[in-house]
Design brief:
Blueprint: E1 35-36, H1 40-47, H2 52-60, E2 66-67, H3 84-93, H4 101-118, E3 126-128, E4 134-136, E5 139-142, E6 144-146, E7 156-157, H5 173-182, H6 189-198, H7 206-241, E8 249-258, E9 276-283, E10 291-298, H8 335-350, E11 353-359, H9 365-374, E12 383-386, H10 388-400, H11 403-407, H12 414-442, H13 447-465, H14 470-475, H15 504-518, H16 520-526, H17 533-543, H18 546-550, H19 555-571
Parallel strand pairs: 1-2, 8-11, 11-12
Antiparallel strand pairs: 3-6, 4-5, 5-7, 8-9, 9-10
Helix pairs in contact: 5-7, 7-19, 8-9, 10-12, 12-13, 13-15
Length: about 600
């Protein structure tokens, strides 16, 4: 073909169509797979397949990349020209420390004075000598050095120390205070380390944190036992000042708490789902209702297997390490045993005799007190009272399920009758409670006068719900008995025109419902109008502590965290106000831990 020269007029004709228009070239398919060099992590993720068959299939694919040797990680310093020590010192200069202000000021003043005396002509600047720093948990031992003359001072303890009677290095108060705070939060040692690292603060080691925690929890237990003994002595003084014939006899309220509800395993497992329990006692002598005794039981151990027999450590676990004090086959919900053990400890250790016991209606703590009396440990037979709040709730539920009362409700449809019956149950319980409270205030707790008045008020209540308020004007303490001013008309649950049809059968049904709360037998068990809300609120505080519930694998941790909650809840103090002797002197000394 002749060479194209300038002036030739050959070329493509207009609207010429190439012969390969619309046909893809196969050249790309024949190209070899590219070569790639990946990092070590990426190279491992690509080459290591879940199975050998997948790897063989991958190698046979034509588009599979050819992987070269992986790249080595780059270990160059953040800033070029710095060796490893200089890079570490630069990182320390940009970090934070927890220093005691007064001790830090004393260190600077002393070192500046000594530096001027030894180097009178030096005008260099003093800085923290981080190269010689000693870490003591959150505390630090630091000195100062001069940037010009090379002067270096001795190291100073920039933290307060815990006074101890033993030899050796004294612990830092900030480390003890940290464990006291961690015992009241759902944060553990690892969580605290993450928080400190996020703030660019060097955290204590895991071993140091765990060692301090193991030392603090027994001290908290000892502290709280001494505090509860002191409260028991105060109760004796209070009864003595009140002129009581038996100052060592006190009324108590008690209730138990489990790490898992006992009813959660119904229909799921033949065993009880709970493995730890705390049974608490609160006094009913004063209005504070302080916690005076606790019984803790634990079935699990983090080191070895479960106990086979009670009182033995047959699973090769030392008493100081083992957390299990109850065999696995023992019933965790045995309130009779826990209540008897707590009352016996009150008698033996603190010299207090239980005179009255207030519990839930289904509790066996009353039988435990009777057993102590039958064994000759108690001088007087204790009286078992029922918690009025739980009793009222049980009566309300029973009225809601009463099908005979459902039929007499003044509504047309079943749904309307059911809703009205639920409201009537609430109103009836409130009416009975109001009558008892007013009788308690009117007769100053005189049981005979109260029962006599309530026996007449019971009939007045029945007639009141049937539209007859004549007896209310004479016998009721909360209903005026007027047409425009009566209990039903002012009720928040019932309409102002609520009236149950008057008949002998309906009157008998209403009388049976009201007698569940106001009959003489029930009044004898609730005449004190007491409840166990203090013990229940304390147990609720324990349940609200997720770290306590989830990580109670050691009895030391169980008792330590539980007794510290006892102290905080009773005095209503914040965790920051709990101090260790010599730890945080400026704050109120709510707790004093004696360091052996």
């Amino acid at each position: 073909m002749p060479k194209f020269q300038k002036g030739n007029k050959c070329g493509f004709k207009p609207q010429n169509v190439p012969h390969n228009k619309g046909v893809e070239s196969k050249r790309k398919e024949n190209l070899p797979a590219p070569y790639r060099r990946l990092s070590e992590d990426m190279h491992q993720m690509v080459t290591v397949t879940p199975s050998a068959a997948e790897r063989q299939e991958m190698m046979l694919r034509p588009k599979c990349h050819h992987l070269l040797r992986p790249r080595k990680p780059n270990n160059e310093s953040v800033q070029e020209g710095l060796n490893e020590n200089e890079s570490e010192q630069l990182a320390n200069q940009n970090s934070h420390r927890l220093l005691h202000l007064r001790k830090t000021a004393e260190m600077w003043n002393e070192v500046m004075r000594v530096h001027r005396h030894e180097k009178p002509g030096c005008d260099g600047q003093l800085s923290l000598d981080l190269a010689t720093e000693e870490r003591r948990g959150l505390g630090s031992r630091l000195g100062l050095c001069c940037t010009t003359c090379g002067y270096a001072s001795r190291r100073y303890n920039l933290y307060e120390e815990v006074e101890s009677k033993t030899r050796g290095r004294k612990a830092a108060t900030v480390n003890y205070g940290l464990q006291v705070g961690l015992s009241q939060t759902p944060i553990g040692n690892d969580g605290m380390r993450k928080i400190l690292l996020s703030t660019n603060t060097p955290p204590p080691s895991r071993k140091s944190l765990q060692k301090t925690s193991n030392k603090i929890m027994p001290l908290i237990e000892t502290l709280n036992e001494a505090d509860m003994s002191n409260r028991c002595r105060q109760l004796v003084d209070v009864n003595t000042l009140r002129g009581s014939d038996s100052p060592h006899a006190i009324p108590v309220q008690c209730d138990g708490m489990y790490n898992n509800p006992l009813y959660s395993g119904v229909g799921e497992t033949p065993f009880q789902p709970a493995t730890q329990t705390v049974y608490s006692f609160a006094e009913n002598v004063t209005s504070k209702h302080q916690i005076v005794k606790m019984v803790t039981k634990n079935k699990i151990c983090s080191k070895h297997g479960h106990l086979l027999e009670e009182g033995t450590a047959n699973h090769q676990c030392s008493p100081g390490v083992c957390g299990a004090n109850l065999p696995m086959q023992h019933t965790i919900g045995d309130e009779f045993t826990w209540a008897r053990e707590g009352m016996a400890e009150l008698l033996c250790k603190d010299g207090l005799e239980v005179r009255e016991v207030t519990t839930d209606p289904d509790s066996s703590a009353g039988r435990a007190a009777d057993s102590l009396y039958k064994d000759g440990l108690l001088q007087n037979k204790p009286v078992h009272y029922i918690d009025t709040r739980h009793l009222s709730e049980n009566i309300r539920k029973s009225i809601k399920k009463d099908q005979k009362l459902l039929e007499v409700m003044p509504k047309r449809t079943k749904a309307e009758k059911t809703k009205l019956l639920h409201n009537f149950a609430l109103d009836a319980v409130d009416r009975c409670t109001a009558e008892i409270n007013q009788a308690q205030a009117a007769y100053a707790g005189d049981a005979d006068k109260m029962k006599n008045k309530i026996s007449y008020a019971k009939h007045a209540i029945v007639k009141c719900y049937m539209g007859d308020h004549a007896l209310c004007r004479k016998h009721s303490l909360v209903c005026k008995g007027r047409v425009s001013n009566n209990w039903v008309r002012k009720s928040s649950y019932l309409g102002h025109d609520f009236t149950i049809p008057s008949s002998v059968e309906n009157e008998a049904r209403l009388h049976a419902c009201i007698s569940k709360r106001l009959c003489p037998a029930v009044l004898d068990r609730t005449i004190k109008n007491s409840n166990s809300q203090k013990a229940e609120s304390f147990n609720r505080e324990l349940c609200d502590d997720p770290y306590l519930v989830m990580s109670l694998s050691r009895e030391t941790l169980l008792v330590g965290r539980t007794v510290l909650l006892t102290l905080l809840i009773t005095v209503r103090a914040a965790p920051s106000e709990v101090s260790v002797q010599g730890l945080v002197p400026p704050f109120p000394l709510v707790a004093r831990l004696t360091i052996p």
